[in-house]
Amino acid sequence: MEYIILSLVLLAIGVYGLVAKRNLLKVLMSVELIAVAASMNFIVFSSAVGDQLGQVFFMLALSVDTAMTAVVIALVLVAYREHGILDVWELSKLKEES
Amino acid sequence: MPIYDVVLAVALVFSAFFAIHIEETIYAVISFGVTLTLFSGLFFLLNAPFAAVFQLIVAVGAIAVFFLAGEMLTPKKKSSQKMKDKIIGLLIAAVLAVPPVISDLRVEVFSRPYNPAFASALWKFRVLDVIAQSVVILILAIGIVMILKIGGRK
Questions:
Q1: Domain range for residue A52?
Q2: How many folded domains does chain A comprise?
Q3: ipTM exceeds 0.95, yes or no
Q4: DSSP code for B126
Q5: Chain A partners of B97 at a C-beta cutoff of 8 Å?
Q6: CA separation (Å) from B127 to A67, B114, B115, B123, B134?
Q7: Could you tell me the pTM of the whole model?
Q8: How many CB pairs (< 8 A) connect A and B?
Q9: Which of A14, B15, B21, B85 could form a disulfide with A33 if both were Cys (CB 3.0 to 4.6 A apart)?
Q10: What is the CATH number of the domain that holds A63?
């Protein structure tokens, strides 16, 4: 139960990063933090129950999360190369202009 | 209350907060690397060695990629973040670290009648998931290559 509080605190920090930060890399780190904090519950409950299936699910979740991070970093690099922008708000303005 | 758990939890909250709060990208990436590594230590303490090693491997890869991206994308200029902001960030992180400390981090372990081995759980029961995930990761890798190629042509 208490690890869930830790998970919630980390989730809150991730949400703070999503809301307050405009740098694309920071936003990506926030998403990663949220994903790991959520995935941590698999390990916590797996440990509590004494079953190793939670570790399996954690690995699958982390694999998808890592792949998503790779794709987003590639998109960030392309966005920076094309427009020289790392600011989320500036990127959203590009959409409005087009 | 196990002292290692509390220390790890507090360090985890602090490093996670600083990874998000610090403006200098390189320091933020370092702090984020510490966060992911501490996650691995926490998993070790939770009797999940496979997940801990997997998390450590992913942390190493993620940190390398974030370092490269951060170095490439960060303009070389002096930081404008004031000392006051950093101290406020430190105080907020300290406040956020209080709930894991005051709450007991023990995990009650009780046995279940069915407890498959890790390998059998992964390959016998979840083999379809594993194959599907592999296909998804392969498609994502192809997508990354295509995106980078299109970006390079333009």
A1: 2-97
A2: 1
A3: no
A4: S
A5: 9
A6: 19, 19, 17, 5, 11
A7: 0.68
A8: 176
A9: A14
A10: 1.10.287.3510
